[in-house]
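User: Could you check the structure of this?
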Amino acid sequence: MRVFFAVDGSSYSIDAVRQVGQLLSSSDEAAIYFAPPDVVIRHAVEADEMKRRAQQAISDAVVQEARARLPDGLAAKAAAIVVQHTPREGILIEAENWKADVIVVGARGLTPLDALLLGSVSKAVVHGAGRSVFVARPNPEHRRNQPLRILYAFDGSTACTAALRFAERFSLPANTEVIAATVIEPMSVSELPDWIVQRARDADTEAMAQGWEREHEAERRQAQQQLQEFMAKQPEPFRRAEALVLEGQPAEQILKLVAERHVDLIVLGSVGKGMFERMLIGSTSDKVLNHAPCSVLVARG
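Assistant: Sure, the predicted structure tokens are below.
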């Protein structure tokens, strides 16, 4: 797999190299992309030459720091791509030229402000890339030295299957824990309190409601069975995934589960029906990417 690391020298972009580097092997290929900042040198006889040397020194330092976060077998052969592009444009252009399978970008940490801001460059890459994007956030203190916990979002579409196939290409630790979740519509979207709904039912309405409840429960069981059967056919560690059926608005339910189960990585397909169509088009995709307190792999088939 060809992995394109876009770094800017920040701590979270360097940590993204470390985080994803742990999921790679020496058979993979890596490139480290860096766009050196403009350096202004005034009142110097050889200002242009001094500027070139300064940018070279900065670039060498950043690339060296990123390489140090990769496994030894991969670090030695990692390509350095240093070009003066606007970062959001340069990442897309150079990843295409290098024929990357996945672009890795770092996102800010877990402070209240950071959780709301994915960052303009990272967001532009996610929405503009024609390939998979791994948005890496730093692991919180309580998750360090713990088994990797992945949340795989499933809807039965070819897109979510392609996302799983892509995730399988990483060298996941043997003790990786996987949660597979699918989201169905709730039986009722009424915002009235339950006691009002119950009191308003007459005999005919009650019989009708019980019929709806039976249909809804059958839908839930069918979704559960479909998910379990699908995951049972997958390689480890996905074969032993815990299968969950959630009800409600997809992004909200995914984010709620992520918080409750301390998920480290969300795996999403880029296009799909049902849950994915609602999750990854427009404001919902931004909500998942902006508010997830963990890394997100947006995988394209």
